[in-house]
Design a protein that fits this description.
Layout lengths: L35 H8 L13 H35 L5 E14 L3 E13 L5 E5 L2 E7 L2 E8 L2 E3 L4 E14 L2 H11 L4 E16 L2 E2 L3 E13 L7 E2 L1 E12 L1 E2 L2 E2 L1
């Protein structure tokens, strides 16, 4: 029997090469439907990494400025404390003292509307410092009793050398001064107590301090003397004031803008 010859699945070309199969869809690659992973990734937004945080230069500059200012202030305070300690050790500064040595009342007339007075005042000023001198401006003096002004006067300017005492004398008076009803009633009520009228003396001035060859600016001071009682003269002869633990206190009067300390 003769053998059957079957045709080949892919006919050979004339030159012996296989003939390619006919292309599907015009020769393009076959399209497959998208799977679930592809559809899920298509709906997600694109991931973009966050940029690194920027350094806040302004905040760091402010911190450096605050630190520098604090260090500067602390340094100034330390230097001032050291200078003050050295000054205290070298000079031992002390406040000058003022005492009322004598006070005489030669006139004290009180009517229903007016008031007149005359006082002879002697004050002792003492400088206890060995290396510090004081230069005083003219001193304004005020006499008052329970905030009622009963006399005004002044003392001339003077220089207070080291370890020096000055005797200052002046007349404090008030001539024909008009008082209101409350002031007159206040004075009359005080005079009922055996004519012993409480008195307060205030001395206001400015002083310049000299330390060695250096001089400071003028500083206001107030000398306050209280605890004095005066006896009103009944006749023409003057009377002396009675004192009881008279204390004259010296206070600095530093004025900053509108306030006085």
């Amino acid at each position: 029997m003769a053998d059957r010859v079957y045709p080949a699945a892919k006919p050979a070309a004339a030159n012996g090469t296989a003939t390619p199969a006919p292309a599907v869809n015009g020769g393009a690659n076959p399209a497959f439907p998208a799977n679930k992973a592809q559809l899920y990734n298509a709906t997600r937004p694109t991931y973009r990494p966050m940029p690194p945080p920027r350094r806040k230069h302004r905040r760091s500059c402010c911190c450096c400025c605050c630190l520098f200012i604090t260090f500067f202030i602390v340094t100034i305070i330390l230097l001032a404390a050291i200078a003050g300690a050295i000054f205290w050790v070298l000079y031992r500064p002390k406040t000058p003292s003022f005492n009322v040595q004598s006070l005489q009342v030669s006139q004290f007339n009180l009517t229903s509307t007016k008031f007149a007075s005359k006082f002879n005042l002697t004050v002792i000023a003492h400088n206890p410092n060995k290396k510090i001198s004081f230069f005083y401006d003219p001193i304004n003096i005020n006499f008052s009793s329970d905030d009622v002004d009963i006399g005004d006067g002044s003392l001339p300017a003077f220089i207070h050398d080291t370890k020096d005492s000055k005797t200052l004398k002046t007349i404090v008076s008030s001539t024909g001064k008009t008082l209101d009803d409350s002031e007159i009633s206040t004075l009359r009520s005080k005079l009922k107590n055996k004519n012993n009228l409480p008195l307060e003396i205030k001395l206001d001035t400015k002083v310049k301090v000299k330390v060695g060859s250096l001089k400071t600016k003028k500083v206001g001071i107030r000398v306050n003397c209280d605890g004095i009682k005066i006896s009103v003269p009944s006749g023409k002869s003057p009377t002396k004031a009675t004192t009881r633990d008279v204390k004259c206190k010296v206070d600095l009067r530093i004025k900053i803008w509108k306030w006085t300390f």
